[in-house]
Design brief:
The structure holds two protein chains of two kinds. By secondary structure, chain A is α+β, with helices and mostly antiparallel strands. Chain A folds into three domains: about 180 residues, Aldehyde oxidase/xanthine dehydrogenase, a/b hammerhead (Aldehyde Oxidoreductase, domain 3); about 325 residues, Aldehyde oxidase/xanthine dehydrogenase, molybdopterin binding domain (Aldehyde Oxidoreductase, domain 4, 2-Layer Sandwich); about 150 residues, Aldehyde oxidase/xanthine dehydrogenase, molybdopterin binding domain (Aldehyde Oxidoreductase, domain 4, 2-Layer Sandwich). Chain A is about 25% helix and about 25% strand. Chain A is globular. Classes of the chains: A alpha+beta, B alpha+beta. At the A-B interface, helix 3 and helix 18 of A face helix 12 of B. The complex binds flavin-adenine dinucleotide. The site of flavin-adenine dinucleotide (FAD) has 31 residues of chain B, from strand 2, helix 2, helix 6, helix 7 and strand 10.
Chain lengths: ~750, ~290
Amino acid sequence: MSSRAPSPHPDHVDKVTGRTEYITDVEVPGMVHGKILRSPHPHAVIKGIDASAALEMPGVIAVLTGADVAALNNHWGLYLKDRPVIAIDRVRYVGEPVAMVAAADERIAEEALEAISVDYEPLPFVTDATEAIEASAPLVHETHDTVKDFYFKGEAKPVAGTNIFQRYNYEHGDVEKAFAQADRCFEAKYEFPMIFHYAMEPHCVIASFQSDGLTLWSCGQSPTAIQKVLSRVFGMPLARIRIISPNVGGGFGGKASVKIDPLVAALAWKARRPVRVCLSVSESMLTARRLSASIRVKTGVRNDGTILAKSVSVLMNGGAYADTGPAVAVKAANRAIGPYRIPNLKLESMAAYTNTVPGAAFRSIGGPQAVWASESQMDEIAEALRLDPLEIRNRNLLRRGEHVRPDLRPIDVEMGEAMDIATREMTQLRASDSGSKTHRGTALGISDPGIMAVSSVLLRLKIDGSVAVVSNSVEIGQGVREVLRRLTAEQLKQPVDVVEVLTPDTAIAPFDWGTGASRSSLMMGLAIADAAADIRRQIADIAAIVLEVDPQSVELCEGGIAIGNRKKTFGELLHAYFGIDSGELVSIGRVSPYSNAGKLAQAPLFWETAAGQCAVAVDEDTGEISVRHYVSVADVGRVVNRAAAEGQDEGATVMGLGHTLSEELVYQDGQPINATMIDYHVPTIDEVPENFVTVLIESGTGPGLGGMRGMGEGAILPVAPAVANALAAGYGARIRELPLTPERVWRAIRDRKER
Amino acid sequence: MFLVPFTHHRPASLDEVFETLGRHGDDAAVYAGGTELLLALKARVLRYEHLIDLKQVKELSGIRVEGKELVIGALATHHQIANSDVVKAHVPAYAALSEEVANIRVRAAGTLAGNLAFAEPHSDPPSLLSAMDATLVLVSPGGKRAVPMRAFILSEFTTAREENELIAEIRIPVTAAGEGFAYRKFGHLERPAVGASAGCIMREGKPSYRLWFGAIGDHPLQATEIEDAIAGVPATSLPDVLPRAARDCAAGISTASDLHGSADYKQHLASVLIQRALAAACEAAQNKGGANA
Ligand SMILES: Cc1cc2nc3c(=O)[nH]c(=O)nc-3n(C[C@H](O)[C@H](O)[C@H](O)COP(=O)(O)OP(=O)(O)OC[C@H]3O[C@@H](n4cnc5c(N)ncnc54)[C@H](O)[C@@H]3O)c2cc1C
């Protein structure tokens, strides 16, 4: 199968000409503007807040502080109810919201912030995860209040009296025995830094309490999670809370689950006015980030490279509030396994609170951290055993249908095929660039998307043959609306241009678990198929009534139905049925773990994978790496929109180049010292490889429509280890700490030469 | 953050500028592109009640050659300098530097004069302008004075400019036949971690060299140790003496570890870059060796 329509994103012209409406463009009558006063301390008691001067300023409408939220159910969280709506008596990281002003405009609000004085008593703090789990570490939270199956399945396992908010263990076989029997064991620790999501649109929310409840225009990726948390915080029924999701300017997990929504809603509640809060990029940097990780990997092998046993120990820095960190910690352990046969496997993972920006989901949660460690080590083993990196991988690769872990779905792709394609493409690229001296690096990544199979959609077939798709899948730049449009057209056998995908609005769109984890095209696609089947049934029944035909003989065709050679437009059919030339048919499509005969219940729903190969050149004197060529290969099952799918693949890779080469949020004395876009370098077009090849394999073996699986995250997995492996292969410099800054590279090459 | 409200002035002449400055004293600041000043105002690091936009002041505009000097008016942006045929023809190394300053948005609005007046250490122009022996012309109600680039920047954000003085123009000696200059920089963040500038001046077959470091210290640093070590050494023999001299000299630079890199790494970069810059400068001098180049 291949893509059909030429226009990959019909909305691109609107975007580049500035016409696309984002939340920042939304005007709500009576709307005022909010600004946030943030903690300058990593950890402190709030002894008092004096906002009287701010309140006297003309144009200031309200000030919100911790004292105001006493009347609310003021702590929330999706795994642990650890986060106050706004700091109450204590701050736990630099940047934590302490007070908020609502004012006639943003300028006044900002001026008013400067008139608020906060009396802090600093407390001992900890920003490093290793220190945070020591017995002497200051506690970021004294108690742990977990919630079970609240929005994510299961429950976090914190350790009482410590900063550990999640622990995870898994084992099969006997790892210690296998290590003892192995010819060689390799053990090392790999470091992955804190990374900022950098969506081009910072967090932005408008909240408004009206007589019919609370409405939010939110940049969130999970509207129904926001709805649920707000319902708890304000003690309001879900039916009175409405989340509208206009175009979102990127999220990458930084807007997943719930972020600033309760805070903005609380200010609107206090001000009794609709309030708009749009953060700056620097403020978004203080809102969420990827969990940094230290990952110790030990692998026991035979001299021929066969893996006998592997143990992985992950320690993640979760920041001041757990957020989705408990899920990230589990995934980091699983994603370190790799696409290999590992007869004896032991995984342990821990996530700890620290006095830093809260860690959160980020494109392939825990995946890049895990794959960084395990795929770096694969090459180290190959080198020590004098094996080709491709050969050692081939020797251990799982074939389709084999188990990564006996309790998980068997792997559903051929990783060997992906790796071979990557090798073939890279060999061609390098041959065409014989003038430059480059070195090749390879890495493979597999991940088990944490997808809840809970989605629903409404299809509304209008009498004129047009179709409205009403869902909560958020258009976040990934092109989901176009995919849903094409899938709806396909399922109803209608041309694409009669289908309209509406702006998500929980007031009319049915429940969906959220936009993330590479799930929306797949899950919403299945829901659409279910809804389309219902529409077909309704049409057939109506045809049976008004045309007196056998419902079995009714087929959908462009613009209407066909019974053998006889055709009727939807308009003709429905006119006859309703008696007027107006009306519509509505259907709902649902997906649950029981759908598709229970096949969606087994975890993971599919394996999201990627084979990456790069060719790099290094300036040995400065240590600067230039990634000249990159090949990314993945079996995505089926491609619905080729240009958009390739864009996701390229985007994930280039995003991966960020944590590979330059990105790292740096803390010093409790302060984030580079939390601005001047001191924190995100890849630009200059870092994009000169040649970039994406190969999407369409094996048709995924669980979605036409055999699709999810995509959009996998390609980020192999980038860092592939580059580090190329560096080691070409220059003998093995670096186990990201990012591979020029200084680290230079030092490693120099140390190697001096040895 | 937002700019705190201010009164905006748009004078058309220097006299008017000074008149406005005189009226508001410390409460006023001039600006050209605003790329530095507005950021500092938004971050509330600086605060002014009056901002004076210089962009209409005719006396400060233009790029031209006067005698043996290229004259760059205070309003010339990096982008204009990089793309000026006059600059490319007469001081090609400086045009090349300008093309690599910051990013296109900053180059399109930001001026060379603004860069120099602000004196942020992580900048490109100062070391090369020092190697080229450029001069700044400062103007005040009392008249004009010339300050050598080498003496202009005193330390971080501090220059020899008096409060009532403006930079009117930057005068760079035209690169003559037998002369070559080059600039090399490196950094992995927005601004350079280290810059190095070199000049190679051939007079009657004898070379002399000018070497300056930028960004690594709080003002441009003359690499006199290297200059002394390689004085009179022909370009072809430089590889025998230069690496060691560069290394020794760079190791003596006083610099602190920061986000741009550890001190020893930056010293190493300084050594690498000064060698690269000098090689390029010698090549340029050779190419400009013709009698009437
Ligand atoms: C994102 C970013 C990246 C950058 N990267 C680099 C880089 O890689 N390399 C580099 O060298 N520079 C870099 N810069 C600095 C850039 O070169 C300067 O911002 C720019 O040249 C300043 O010029 P301006 O006209 O905008 O100055 P303004 O902001 O208008 O003024 C700056 C200062 O100079 C004063 N001033 C302006 N004109 C005069 C005058 N005629 N006489 C006296 N005082 C005056 C102002 O009062 C103010 O204090 C970067 C800047 C930014 C924002």
